[in-house]
Amino acid sequence: MVDAVARLTRLGLPVTPAAADPALLELRGIVARAVDPADPASRTAALDGTLRGLLARFPDARYATAARALFGLPPAEPGQNLTARRELAAKQAGHEVHHFRKRVEPKLVEKLAWELLADADRFTRLPMIAPRLAPTTSRQPVQADPFAWEVAEHEEHLCRLWSAIYAARAELLTVERLVSLDADRVDVVHAAVTAAWRWAAARAEAIGYTTAFGTDLEAVPNADLVALAGWAPTLTQAQASRLTEAAAGGASREQFVHALHDETGLGNTWIDGFLTPPAAAEPTDSIEQENGPTT
């Protein structure tokens, strides 16, 4: 796996079918994201998108920019060869090029490989993949039959569930982006409240779906369904239930806020969760610690 990721540095991103190792294309996280899992080109596109996302969230902040440059993402420029990208990455990391190539680059590649494996493991442990959609050119009426009605209703609720999960993810990402930009607190708080509304609505949809249908999701806890949207501040069961009650029934954002008008403590818990810096990584997880301050 590490060797397969290392080979991607030769040409950098975007990943091409010729550069994509079969071992990477067969990862469950890649297959699940592919529009057509049977098509190698589709899986290659999914691999490219997944790598970009992992590099955008590279876990070692000290070397995140260097890792992105090494694989051809900004601050690297399109078309730069490996030598130019390596020199830029070394500069971003604060190391001499030879030291970077021998000591740091292998660690960056290894960490990205582990992130790919962790991503695949998340898909393996949770049997939840959003239903794929295909374009249709003609109307598909529902037949006047109890079984057809039941199937259509199930798909309706499933679509609402995934719609709510993706809407929550979009708002959670918005908050994290604003925090990263050091945006005005008022803007961050506004976005955090919107995220709370969408997160609670997703939780309400998850509870409603699993209660009504169960089926293949009956063994998946509602908390895991909502966790698909992304990280959210830690709440007690009572706090999560209170948010869910306020968002249930298709409540608007204004109705959600009004219902929680007196819940100051709950609001502070949610908002402070985003405004509190994440815990620093352990020293053993840091590439800088492993390689020392050599320049």
TrEMBL record:
Q: Where is this region: Disordered?
A: 275-295
Name by which UniProt lists this protein: Uncharacterized protein
Q: Tell me which domain of life the UniProt entry assigns to the organism this sequence originates from.
A: Bacteria
